[in-house]
Give the backbone structure.
Amino acid sequence: MYNFEYSRAKSVADAAKAASGDAEAKLLAGGMTLIPTLKQRLAKPTALIDLNGIADLAGIKRDGNNLVIGAMTRHAEVARSKDVKAVIPALAHLAEMIGDPAVRNRGTIGGSIANHDPAADYPAGVLGLNATVITNKRQIKADDFFTGMFATALQDGEIITAVSFPKPDKAGYMKFKNPASRYAIVGVFVAKTGNDVRVAVTGAGAGVFRAKDLESALTKSFLPTAVEGIKIAADGLNSDIHASAEYRAHLITVMAKRAVVACG
Amino acid sequence: MPSVSLTVNGRKVSAEVEQRTLLVQLLREKLGLTGTHVGCDTSQCGACVVHVDGTSIKSCTILAVQCEGTNVLTIEGLAQGDKLHPMQEAFREHHGLQCGFCTPGMVMSAVDLLKNNPKPSEREIREWLEGNICRCTGYHNIVKAIQAASQAGR
Amino acid sequence: MATMIGTSVKRREDAKFLTGRGNYTDDINRPGQVHAYIIRSPHAHATLASVKTDKAAKRPGVVAVLTGADTAADGIGGLPCGWLIHNKDGSPMVEPPHPPLAQGKVRHVGDPVAVVIAETYAQARDAAEHVEIDYKALPAVSDASKAIERGAPQLHDEAKGNLCYDWHLGDKAAVDAAFAKAAKVAKIDLINNRLIPNAMEPRAALGEFNRATGEYTLYTTSQNPHVIRLLMGAHVLHVAESKLRVIAPDVGGGFGSKIYHYAEEAIVTWAAAKVNRPVKWTAERSESFMSDAQGRDHATHGELALDKDGKFLALRVSTVANLGGYLSTFSTTIPTWLYATLLAGVYTTPVIYCEVKAVFTNTVPVDAYRGAGRPEASYLLERLVDIAANVCGLDRAEIRKRNFIPKTAFPYQTPVALQYDSGDYPGCLETAVKASDYAGYDKRRAASEKAGKLRGIGISTYIEACGIAPSAVVGSLGARAGLYEVGTVRVHPTGTISVLTGTHSHGQGHETTFAQVVADALGVPMESIEVVHGDTAMIPFGMGTYGSRSLAVGGSAILKAVDKIVAKSKKIAAHLLEAAEADIEFKDGVFSVAGTDRSKTLGEIALAAYVPHNYPIETVEPGLDETAFYDPKNFTFPAGTHICEVEVDPQTGVVTVEKFTAVDDVGRVINPMIVEGQVHGGVVQGIGQALYEGCVYDPKTGQLLTGSMMDYCMPRADNLPAFSVGHHTTLCTHNQLGVKGCGEVGAIGSPPAVMNAVVDALKPYGITHLDMPATPERVWRAIHSARQPRAAE
């Protein structure tokens, strides 16, 4: 690790101020990706602004038909939350699939989606559930939030404060784990709200994306059999020693089908 | 150099550290608590698991300065004097360790599991250990030890 | 008395490990210590145009920056290879230099180039970025079969065509003749995948130099400190044994990877004298991936000739073995004497021929990894036997039974040099078949199919050879060391006992097992016995722990020392009891005059020996301290049957091990709990090889693509079932304990059992072979490209 300055922000405003003053500073949320990256000397920030001391960034609230999860809420908290299990059980399941228990005790939803690792789980949940990302400056629809590999719509000095999830009628998440890293080789989040079906795929592409073919098939008929014949094009999908693009394309269909089954 | 003050195994300590110093480095290098180990550099092996404010975390993936004011429990603080913690005792009884290197993290994780889920199934135990890698035991006796500790009602 | 052997005594090692009081190399800090960071080649193959250190030397905290020029100037030698192999034509193998710091060229990613020594590790690593190294990249080759092709990049000037040796064993003419008469032939081409050992404790080394005495001390993560002292002292640093102390304290697993003498050990020891401060180096895991010797990596063609009844007539094997960029300490013997000699397996195959080309490539050196050569032999043979069963239309258990060496045939001379002393292979199979509920398999298969899964069952009936010996024989085969072991039994004046062993325990529980053995042999409580290992200043000598040798060879040495203690004690007892020596009996720790109630305890004898006031001083020296060197008469031959059941998800290709049964013959079992633990761990390393682990280099650049646990899949608890482990024992006939060794059996027997099960599960698709690891994509592709026997789910 290169050395850096460290400060503990007391409020979001405090953090935003520190972040906007230094383009090379980084916000430190759970640190489950940032710290390993620093250890490998793959990043050289001038300063880390620690968000862990901002109490009002953590917590889960029900807001009418919505579930609002504070940016600094740990994965473990989401996974065992009675509210999440009651409103969107698939989201609790997704949180339980992330990393391992010690990682889930530190990692946060805000950190995960701000990082937008192409193999992370939360982006699939946020996009699949048509959530709204709330920042200190504005509200961003999920469809506009994830812009590319490790890229989001967040601007300098913009800090995620919470994510608001509308309650779907049904939802399911199915993850095919990389056997070594346990990140998603393919993760598929399926959600049905009224006649609207969304299918968000993580792990397979440069970033999370919606699988339109699967969405239209499931809009017509929300049954596992509706997707099993659909062949996803491998073009542009990730290919590495663990899974070729062709295999990932195949897994998207299989995981989608199983996610529909999981919807119950 | 910043200084950090925290409670480790019930003892108040402070130390000067670099900003980049990890909690595990503070424990091992500044406080001489070498029971917590480093087995990888990608936050996967779990040899470094300790409890911070009552939950298990990987001490290789948190900065020492982030632990200001926290209460840290390491493997050295688990036994009561010469009396082993029931989880330590179960590992000994069921041969849940061989070379001993992953053991501190494994035990600390297992203690946290039973805190969250006092009666886990075999499957739940195996899944909980996803972040603790052991190369010696094949996990068989580790799982057995945790089952035994659970059955002993602890 | 004799109550300790066969008892699952809880381990005396455990309390310290469970409470965080272990003492591993990285836990040790010496006054004035500085820290080393090793700069490693990022290229698989490059010439070193220049290495400039002046900028780095000025960075904060830097004590020294040392390069290959410095080692050369100080006359530092290369890392030696411990086993000379001869080519088919009798000429010796090629032995290129293996400098601790690169000299003019780097040959694999991770090859050490320079070392930065600073007050803190972070400072050393910071400064390392200011060492300017001009690499001129060269084309690289990582695949051994490609490295011997014409036009391949050449690693060493000495090794034409990258060939280290072209070796063979067996009677080629007889084998060819048998094939000419064969009714059927089973054939296979397979890859034995390269593995990365990944003991959980990363390697570390701490060197220290005492200017007053001129003595060096090295603390290191080693399985055999005396071997390191010998190799490093004599070949690399040119320091006398008397001035070099090597300590291997608690070591966090080895699995072979901590046998070898590594560059870092020599570097810190040498540098400690140069900077006149203790120098510590601890590997980061990513360094372990590119610097710990790796395992396996064979490409093999095998053919088995059979008669019309499925009897094996001959075996013909051709293997290309990858040795990596340099010769690691015991690398050359793994694909030869520890491989081809095992190709008879547990079968009566009358003639066998095996040829092996060993090849340099731009990869991390390859050496012994748990099993070492024997897993490669057993995998080839057991896969081939399954294919033979298919070719002959025989049941896979039946074809094995038809070819087993019968229980009555021992000692059994194989056509590939070894003489097996004992075993009961049909008995192992029968016990395993029962234990695994083989009869209930069809029901379980039906249940799997109902759930949309494929199910397969696989058997492997393996053998291995442990306690490699005798010294004279291995010497004639090229070993450059003796393979005996040393034990000292020191009875102290108060009757407590120190047992010193030249073996090293890094998870195996020797401190417990050896104490059990001595407790029974001397009839004293275990608590009075301390087992000491791991320090060349305390232990007379030793060859260390590898190849499942510790109890068979080290334990035998200890018993030999016990015999000497008893013999001397009888003389002392005879004097004290005023009886003839021939009338003294020893039983349960008491020396008595036959037929009387007159006796002396071992403690009383010890006191007399150290306070020799009333003592046969004319004929017996004072003291009760005996050392024995034990050179075994033969290898030992553990064997067994492993049965594995897997489920395959045909939609994703995911394989899960559902049931695993191991029945092993490891000879006499001293501590069943510890033996079972060894089997569990070995089996999981074998399952890891079969399903999860595979080291991958980029074929174009030689970059290590599985350079961390993010990409190299370590088996986790949730990948595995609970195991059923049992024994079917025959005793080793040539050591006093009757023990054979248990450290490697799991890793040797399990890969073919798993893969035979996977292939069995895929049988409906016409699949007859799949290379390891059977990753989801590999399995899915095999299914996908095969004929489709049923509609996809």
Remarks:
- The first helix of chain A runs from residue 12 to 20.
